[in-house]
Amino acid sequence: MAAKILLLDNNLRVLGLVSERLTYLGYEVVTASRVHDAVLKGIVMPPDLLVCDVLMPELNGWELKRLLAQIPSLAAVPILFLSAHETLPVEMYHPTVGIVDLLKKPYTGEALVAAVGTLIARQAGRRRLMTQPLTGTVALDGATLIDLCHVLALRSADGTVTLSVGAAPSVTAAQWVWSRGALIDAAMEPLRGEEAFLAAMTATGVEPTVRIDPNPAVPPRPTITKTPAALIAESIRRRVMGQGDPSGARELRTPELDDAFLERLAATGLILRLGAASSRR
């Protein structure tokens, strides 16, 4: 069964070209040039992936994700943002946001196709992680260490995660201790604590092997105080920018719709249309 892709871009020429390319590759593509239409079409037929230009005239991509997080059928849909920015806002790394990635402009058609395939595979892998037992050898199957950390947090997991990271001949073992969905300790010689976690997350090479065992009867002394979301944001900063960004490691909150944002939605008529669409289902 073909994966469903919802494509949102207010540039009709780009919309047509990208839609044609993805359709040729076998995807079922639905297009929208306005945020209103994209949200309503997504409610009627939830996609497997949303590909979205960030600079939209009504709401920008970041604001759109804040809205989708409040719609149960769309909250977990992965998003590929198309943007000239180097990185995503740190709020996008919260476990409850789901899979969000960015393809930097200008991009090639081949890069877009590769990114789409990768995200669809990640979503399938993440779904498996959400349902399978988190014990013994755990296959990521397309999911990433970011997805694994998000799943461990969402499932309030307990366990010692042993990883082999890096590429031969420089494969290194790393160990994370999780307690009730929080990372409390990490080790990767010669590092300990937050720096050990960040080193494992930014290591390059083949997909790591993962094993999860019960925690020892006497848990280690906690060496980590930051949330998984803050640590993930910092690890991505280091991978993308090549250096740490302390501002990226601040505490993150689940995106919410504040009064000012709701007023903007009401001004576009989107709230009323969403209500009407919900009442027809």
The CATH superfamily title of the largest domain: Response regulator
Could you list the spans in which at least 5 consecutive residues all have pLDDT below 50? 243-255
What is the spatial order of strands in the main beta sheet? 6-11-7-8-9-10
What is the fold-level CATH name, i.e. the topology of the largest domain? Rossmann fold
Beta-strand content: 15-25%
Helix amount: 25-40%
Total domain modules: 2
The top-level CATH class of the largest domain is Alpha Beta
Q: Strand count, sense and closure of the main sheet?
A: 6 strands, antiparallel
- Overall 3D geometry? globular
Going by helix content, strand content and strand pairing, the class is alpha/beta
Task: Describe the fold and architecture.
The chain is an alpha/beta fold. The protein has 2 domains: 4-126 and 254-280, Rossmann fold, CATH 3.40.50.2300; 132-249, no CATH class. 38% of the residues lie in helices and 20% in strands. It contains 9 helices and 11 strands. The chain has a 6-stranded antiparallel beta sheet, with helices on one face. A 5-stranded parallel beta sheet has the order 2-1-3-4-5, with helices on both faces. A hairpin with a 6-residue loop joins β7 and β8. It is globular. Residues 243-255 have low confidence and may be disordered.
List the helices and strands and how they pair.
Layout: E1 4-8, H1 12-24, E2 28-32, H2 35-44, E3 49-53, H3 61-68, E4 79-83, E5 100-104, H4 109-131, E6 136-137, H5 145-154, E7 159-165, E8 172-179, E9 182-188, E10 191-192, H6 194-202, E11 209-213, H7 228-241, H8 259-268, H9 270-280
Parallel strand pairs: 1-2, 1-3, 3-4, 4-5
Antiparallel strand pairs: 6-11, 7-8, 7-11, 8-9, 9-10
